[in-house]
Amino acid sequence: MKCKKIQDLIAAGYLDGELDLQTKSAIDTHVSSCKQCRLFHEAAVRLTVEPFKRVTPVKPPEEIWAGIENALSKKKERISIFNAFKNNLQAFFYIPKPAYIFATVMVIMLCVGIFTKTHLDRQELYQAHLDAENEAFARLFNGNADQDTNNGVNFDTIIERYFM
Predict the structure, then answer these.
(1) Are residues 127 and 77 in the same domain?
(2) Per 3-state DSSP, what percentage of the chain is helix, strand, and coil (rounded to 5)?
(3) pLDDT of 77 higher than 60
(4) Any idea what DSSP says for residue 14?
């Protein structure tokens, strides 16, 4: 490993004993052969571990412990009330997994059906429009447009004959 990685591991978990044995032995091997990492390790131990070895534990007064225990019990009570409410709510709205799966499949099928029907309806409308257009063009080209479009009424002007 590179020195930067070794130093990061020493600072992050080596001194606390949080690393696995393989990583710890790799660090020990590297530290024994690398002067820079050995100095870093010694400095880290001197600055972070040794000051806590000389500290004597201080026992807080009993009223502080009583306050802490009281606060913890209230918090536990609040959590238990919340959990009871949550459990009751879940029991009231309980739906087994197969019902969720069935509902999901039904919603998907409904959506597919709606979109397919809409698409087919559009195709039918478009086809009807094309058929009507083709029929109109056929009448124009065959010369019998006056009969169908005017319902038997002949306006008999030049412009009407031209467009009809």
Answers:
(1) no
(2) 80, 0, 20
(3) yes
(4) I
Distance set, CA 137 to CA 76, 85, 134, 150, 152 (Å): 83, 73, 5, 15, 19
Structure tokens at 147: 């009969």
| Residue ranges making up the domain that contains 40 | 3-53
Overall number of domains in the chain: 3
pLDDT in tens, 92-146: 777 777 888 888 999 999 988 887 777 777 778 888 888 888 888 887 777 654 4
Both tokens of 116, joined, read 């397919």
Are residues 86 and 100 both part of a single domain? Answer: no
The reply to whether 142 and 163 lie within a common domain is yes
Last residue of a domain, one of 71, 94, 117: 94
- 133 and 89 in one domain? no
Model confidence over 25-66: pLDDT tens digits? 999 999 999 999 999 999 988 888 888 888 888 888 888 888
Distance between CA atoms of residues 132 and 137, nearest Å: 9
Question: Is the model's pTM score more than 0.70?
Answer: no
Q: How many residues are there in the chain?
A: 164
Distance between alpha carbon 72 and the CA centroid of its chain, in Å? 35
